[in-house]
## 1
Amino acid sequence: MFLPLVENAFTHGVKGNKDGAFIHILLSFNQDEVFFKVGNKKGEVDKILHQKNGGVGLENLQKRLELIYPDKHQLKIIDSTDEYSTMLKINLS
């Protein structure tokens, strides 16, 4: 479940000028829930790549979450001007 989020951060967050580039990954859990957050500075947009393959990884992740954890997950995507982050919370109880 976490790999597509990490892959996206590396694929899209480290393009072009790498000055100030970052990728932050946070994983926390307890017996009731798992919380995973990935944030990255936006790199240069690769318009051709985005048009061919854009959104497939996240779309597939959302479908998987709905099948495996129906009504027990939250996937939040924050797409600001300079930063992109995803937060996934899975309720285990």
## 2
Amino acid sequence: MDDDVVAKYDALASTYSRRYADPGAVARFYVDLVQRWGPEPPANARVLEVSCADGFMTEALARGGYRVTAFDISPKMVATARARIQAAGVEADIEVGDIRMFESDSRWDVILAPMWTFFAYVADPDPVLARLAGALAPGGKLLVDRNPRSHPVREGIDALARAGLTGVEWRPVAVPLTKRLGALGAMGLRVALAMPPVRDRLLRRRLNVVLIGRRPEIPGKE
């Protein structure tokens, strides 16, 4: 483990999700992606959340009816997430773990890695993505985020394809992290992101993107 990273996030554990203007909106955005983007997960799907922080997305996933397993590199984040889950009256398995050392014999319907950004914390992404792809059930999907200002989107698409995933796509994270939007503001942002010139200007300034890739139902087949 990287001691500096652990210390940084241990120190943030008690206040982590407050960094977002509307953490509920961020969580709902990602849960909606899990539900609606790419293959629809089966009822009671198994979801692995990578880098769960204080559990604000973990709770939303568990409330959505998923069987959630989550891990984070920070022991204090894990303790905070467990307390959140217990207080919410939902269930999730949450452990300390380092994505760079990820190994699993289990198979997941969805693996979600919203790490702000996955590619910033994983210096050598190809072997990690290959292991994540291998941990998906046939037809399962992997979602990872990427900062297009520091990590070009095309390179992320190619990395997921090298991991053996198909149907690789991307879309902007349509939730501002530092500003709470009302219904009209959220609608305006969705309209803006549907116009490529406006979307591209926004991506050059502030928004991250999410990448998705699917494990083929039959190995080697689309």
